[in-house]
Amino acid sequence: MLTLVSERVHLLAHILRLVVEPNGKQHPDIQKLCLNVKKLEETTNEALSAFFMDNDANAKKRPYLN
Question: What is the DSSP letter of 21?
Answer without folding.
Answer: S
